[in-house]
């Protein structure tokens, strides 16, 4: 869960997740939305993948990223236990 909190802490990574809410995107499509280098975006995407917030699959020369919500469901369940 530490990786999840680390991934969600960064505003750029949260912005990437918001982009992926609309559907899968290639790394290049994601990079075009930011004023950051492609290696920096790749680093952010790798951290999101490690936290299981996104999945990636290679299609020819491109890597496409998709949002994964399963880990967020687990996080919400964990957080809700503290509500009562």
Automatic annotation (TrEMBL):
The keyword Magnesium does not apply. It comes from the Bacteria. Keywords: DNA-binding, Transcription, Transcription regulation. InterPro entries: ArsR-like_HTH (IPR011991), HTH_ArsR_DNA-bd_dom (IPR001845), HTH_MetalResp_TranReg (IPR051081), SdpR-like_repress (IPR047796), WH-like_DNA-bd_sf (IPR036388), WH_DNA-bd_sf (IPR036390). Residues 1-84 form the HTH arsR-type domain. SUPFAM superfamilies: Winged helix' DNA-binding domain. Pfam families: HTH_5 (PF01022). GO terms for molecular function: DNA binding; DNA-binding transcription factor activity. PANTHER family: TRANSCRIPTIONAL REGULATOR, ARSR FAMILY, TRANSCRIPTIONAL REPRESSOR SDPR. This is Winged helix-turn-helix transcriptional regulator. It comes from Hymenobacter setariae.
């Amino acid at each position: 869960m530490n990786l999840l909190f680390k991934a969600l802490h960064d505003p750029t990574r949260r912005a990437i997740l918001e982009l992926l809410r609309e559907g899968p995107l290639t790394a290049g499509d994601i990079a075009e939305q930011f004023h950051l280098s492609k290696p920096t975006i790749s680093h952010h995407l790798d951290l999101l993948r490690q936290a299981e917030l996104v999945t990636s699959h290679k299609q020819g020369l491109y890597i496409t990223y998709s949002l994964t919500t399963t880990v967020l469901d687990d996080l919400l369940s964990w957080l809700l236990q503290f509500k009562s």
